[in-house]
């Protein structure tokens, strides 16, 4: 019978999720935005990533801090943010943050690098009508 083992695994995953949520909350409170972005991306939480970006932009010199943080993300994290911002851009409440991230990616990534992102073609096609 593997029911007990499966229940323990599910409980362990739930506990790990709660710990990560608490860590994310602490990072935001401490204004450690790069780590908060990385954790929110790894948890696959587009709304949380958006909240982190909004928090960064509320800071004095927010655009500069946003650029510094986005540039320091790994390629796979940038790809995830690109996928998230396609959705954000369709909503007028979130389009400014999406455009700020897009501007950073376009300014700091070489065109050849952007072309290597997974899903770049569909992202561009989805962004064009709203941008």
From TrEMBL:
One of its GO terms (biological process) is endonucleolytic cleavage to generate mature 5'-end of SSU-rRNA from (SSU-rRNA, 5.8S rRNA, LSU-rRNA). Its main location: nucleus. This is TBL3 protein. It is found in: Nucleus, Nucleolus. Residues 21-131 form the U3 small nucleolar RNA-associated protein 13 C-terminal domain. PANTHER family: TRANSDUCIN BETA-LIKE 3 (PTHR19854), TRANSDUCIN BETA-LIKE PROTEIN 3 (PTHR19854:SF15). It holds the Pfam family Utp13. Keywords: Nucleus, Repeat, WD repeat.
